[in-house]
Amino acid sequence: MLFRRICCSISKSYHNPFSLSPILTNPSRNPSSYSVYSPNLKTLRLSSRRTISATPNSLVSESSTNSQMDDSKRPPMVPIPHPDSAGRAEVFRALEASLGSSFSSEPIIPDPNPLIIVISGPSGVGKDSVIKRLREVREDLHFVVTATSRTKREGEVDGKDYYFMSKEEFLSMIEKNELLEYAMVYGDYKGVPKQQIRDYMEKGYDVVLRVDIQGAAYLRKILRDNAVFVFLVADSEEALVKRLIGRKTETVEALLMRVASAKEELKHVKEFDYVVVNKEGELEGSVKLMESIIDAEKAKVQQRRAVV
Ligand SMILES: Nc1ncnc2c1ncn2[C@@H]1O[C@H](COP(=O)(O)OP(=O)(O)OP(=O)(O)O)[C@@H](O)[C@H]1O
C-alpha cells in the first residue's frame, strides 16, 4: 500500500522518470520518516521530509534525518526480494528481519465458544426429526439426552432418544438440583441433566437441547442471550395436524390436547432468536438452515458465553 502510494507520488510529481524496481525495504513503521533510496543514486525529493531514489533494478529505503526512532532501536536494513524473484521463505524471512519481529503462528482469533442451542416448537412440528438428521450430518454437536418419566415408544432406545426412568427417580434428580430445566409434559416428566451439558461443553462441543415452549421460556430467563433459541414451525396448522395424526403415537385425547396447545404456543415465536419453517416434505432444507444458523453463530464477533 505504502509502496503503491510512493509510486503514485513519483508518477504524479515527476512523470515517472524511472522504472521502479520491485525491491523495497521498510526500515521503519513511522510513515513520517519513511523514505526509499537507491545506492545507485538517482534521488527524488518528494517533500522537505522525504527523499526517494530509484534505479532500474532496486529500491531500498533509509530513514530520513528527522525520523523519530532512535538508530539503536531501528531494525537492520534488509533488502526484501520481490516474490517474483525469490522463494516464499526468503521473502518471509526478509520481511521479518525488516520489521524486526517474527510473525506469530498463533491463531488471530481464538476458537469460538461452545454454544448451547435450544430447539423448541409445537408438538409434532418435527423437532425430533430435525435433530435426528442434524445428528447424522454434524459430528461436532452433542444432543443432550433428555431424562423422562414417560414410557418408551416403539423403536426408541434408552440413553439415545431419552433416559427413561421412573417418576421416583426423576423426582430424586429434581431434589438434587441435577436438572437445568424440567417440566411435566402431557402427564410425564421431562428434564435436561446439567452434568451432561457441562461435560460436553468442557470438551468443546456445542450442545443442543430440545425443550417444549415453556421450557424454552424458562431457559431464556436463566441463560438470557448466552444460548441460541430456535423455534421450529410447520408451514401451516393443517400440515402440523396431519403430521401428528400421521405419527400414530397419540391417543385421541392427547392428540386433541397437542393440537389445541399448538395455536397458543405459536404466539411465543418472538421470544426466540431464529425461526425455522420445517416445510412439508423438506426436512433436509430445515436441517441445512439449522446448520447455517450454527455456522453464523460461530462467526459472531460478540460470542455467547453460556455457563450452567
Ligand atoms: N418436514 C417434514 N415434512 C413432513 N413430515 C415431517 C417433517 N418433519 C417431520 N415430519 C413427521 O412429522 C411427525 C412428527 O415429527 P416429530 O416426532 O419429529 O415431531 P416433534 O416436534 O419432535 O414432536 P413431539 O414434540 O410431539 O415429540 C413425524 O411422523 C415425522 O416423521
UniProtKB/TrEMBL annotation:
<dbReference type="GO" id="GO:0004385">
    <property type="term" value="F:GMP kinase activity"/>
</dbReference>
<dbReference type="InterPro" id="IPR017665">
    <property type="entry name" value="Guanylate_kinase"/>
</dbReference>
<dbReference type="InterPro" id="IPR020590">
    <property type="entry name" value="Guanylate_kinase_CS"/>
</dbReference>
<keyword id="KW-0067">ATP-binding</keyword>
<keyword id="KW-0808">Transferase</keyword>
<dbReference type="GO" id="GO:0005829">
    <property type="term" value="C:cytosol"/>
</dbReference>
<dbReference type="GO" id="GO:0005524">
    <property type="term" value="F:ATP binding"/>
</dbReference>
<feature type="compositionally biased region" description="Polar residues">
    <location>
        <begin position="52"/>
        <end position="69"/>
    </location>
</feature>
<dbReference type="InterPro" id="IPR008145">
    <property type="entry name" value="GK/Ca_channel_bsu"/>
</dbReference>
<feature type="domain" description="Guanylate kinase-like">
    <location>
        <begin position="114"/>
        <end position="295"/>
    </location>
</feature>
<feature type="region of interest" description="Disordered">
    <location>
        <begin position="52"/>
        <end position="76"/>
    </location>
</feature>
<dbReference type="Pfam" id="PF00625">
    <property type="entry name" value="Guanylate_kin"/>
</dbReference>
<dbReference type="InterPro" id="IPR008144">
    <property type="entry name" value="Guanylate_kin-like_dom"/>
</dbReference>
<keyword id="KW-0418">Kinase</keyword>
<protein>
    <recommendedName>
        <fullName>guanylate kinase</fullName>
        <ecNumber>2.7.4.8</ecNumber>
    </recommendedName>
</protein>
<comment type="similarity">
    <text>Belongs to the guanylate kinase family.</text>
</comment>
<keyword id="KW-0547">Nucleotide-binding</keyword>
